[in-house]
Target: Alpha/beta hydrolase
Amino acid sequence: MQAQTSGLQVSVHGHPNADTLLLWHPATQSDPDAVAALASRIATRSGIRVVLPTWSAGSDLLRSVRYARESAVHPPDQLSVVGYGAAGIAALSLARHQRRLGIGLRRVTCVDGAADLDDPISGRPLEAPGAVPAAVETAVDIVASDDPGWAQQTVESWRTLGWTATLVPADQFTWRIA
Model:
């Protein structure tokens, strides 16, 4: 299903009553068919609803969070976010700032993150995570990337501050464009 919200093009894959995963992939601009096929594959194999925005700026990412939350049939604070590259850094930043933004997240996953990537929402490097507030139970996954030292260090820094953070080996992460 294709939708448009506030000038943001969104495709939705999977059953509308399933839990929602917001998928931020930078290739939505350069290879939208491949990313749509990935979203469909994730929805089919995982039994979830995948919201896939076509984004080009950090403000688009924030609008897609609003759309995913407002269009979900489950509690909006059960949203999961998967971001690739700089959008993965944005997913981590979203987890860190979720209470300030008035949202809750079930899980965030950063794929292909690296120390030299800025958060496209703030335009700045990823800030160190704050101590996890008692009301936040968001799981954080970092998929090992071309910068394994960054991935390991990032997981450790989140764990140190009380977050449930996991380093996922790259060869065990299958949500890639084929």
